[in-house]
Amino acid sequence: MRRVEFCLCTAAIVAAVALQPEAVSAGGHDYADALRKSLLFFEGQRSGKLPDTQRVTWRGDSALHDGDQIGIDLVGGYYDAGDNVKYAFPMAFSTTLLAWGVVEFGGEMGRSLYRAREAVRWGSDFLLKATADPGKVHVQVGNPYADHDCWERPEDMDTDRTVYTVDSQGPGSEVSGETAAALAAGSMVFSGADPAYASQLIQRSMAVFDFADRNRGSYNDSLGRWVCPFYCDFNGYQDELLWAAAWIHRATGKVYYWDYLMGNIHLIDFPFMVGEFGWDSKHAGIHVLIFPEIVAGGSSNGDLLGRADEFVCTMLPESPTVQVRYSAGGLLFKAGGSNMQHATSLSFLLAVHARQLMRLNRAVRCGGEAVAPSRLVELAKSQVDYILGDNPLRMSYMVGYGDKYPQRIHHRGSSLPSALTHPGHIGCKEGTPYYLSASPNPNLLVGAIVGGPDMLDWYEDFRQNPAQSEPTTYINAPMVGLLAFLSVAPNR
Description:
Elements: E1 17-19, H1 31-44, E2 86-87, H2 88-105, H3 112-130, E3 136-141, H4 144-148, E4 163-167, H5 173-189, H6 195-214, H7 219-223, H8 238-252, H9 255-264, H10 283-297, H11 307-315, E5 325-326, E6 332-333, H12 340-360, E7 364-366, E8 369-371, H13 373-388, H14 412-415, H15 432-436, E9 459-461, H16 466-469, H17 473-488
Antiparallel strand pairs: 1-9, 2-3, 3-4, 5-6, 7-8
């Protein structure tokens, strides 16, 4: 899985700041502080009219007319990464993972629970707007080619804000299915805190699922170059439909969605996809999410009983069926850009499954060997600790955490002077000198986790290398639940 960000004006390349590997540093981490910072990052990614409670004060209101050209309010939501396009596919996945973190680990979030709910609501509010037109889902705002040709603050954005839509004539079951999942997961977050809002979310979720299922097809075909190669769906839309059904069933208990899931889950049960989970692939996530109900079903679910365990065995370095690689410094590594998305999302699943196993008094078996839930926690913790500084470079890959972290992240708002210090408009190409500069970013995007080092544990603090230096919402979203879990019981 990959995300494509175009680089600008590379004729005048500046020298990269290469960070030299050193011995690995060990030590404890303040997971509660990292949790607070991770949630702060989402405030830095907000689009739309910012609330009075906004804590990232170098950001301002942006994209206040999104949707005007088609007569619908599409203001709000999140910018996915360091650009100014709103892509509903990764935004919905990020919202789903934020919500799952609250559902599973909200009890461990303490004072951060309120902020976590805020982060979920900012995403789900936009998804409600994007699905307000019956029979349509608005899946993207902004021309990605025009946007990627500029280095411009969101507050100054003057590129084309075209709205891209799927409907019965041009379907997009993957993005619609993920949107339905996000709305259903969000309904669980607010079931006690705001029942009326929760009801609105789940009712819309079911309507969007029905639309996605009745009008099957990929938005790759419907929207073509406007979504590919940026957030192309590489493995089909069946997993998103099943993912949505699983979440709606969990939120409502309605038998229809469980029957739908059981009647179609064989369509995604390819062994080589067991260890995949991210904005493009929900395979492992589905099996972990439904694991308790599969266990409760006993022998009637015999073919599915081992799927979540198979996922675990593809992650464990000592397993005979391991499918991922680990760097010498211990970082989980998969092919494609922005590797930290794999380290955080797969580790989140390990933590969720470990908790399930502990509750059910079960272990995993890999190659005939029993694996205790504590081993899953240990592996997930090792990935979080690597991100926070226990790595060969002795640096944190979360901006603002620790003493040493990336200074030149690939992020427009962070790298350009804020309106507080430069109130004048900075045009499309006027931002290029800031992009090419070797200077640290003037605005600290606290909590942002970058794409991370390569397989050799090597990282360049270099704005023009987005695969390593760009933060994304779907890297951070699973970290919220992970950090909450570890903040209370890091060795459980």
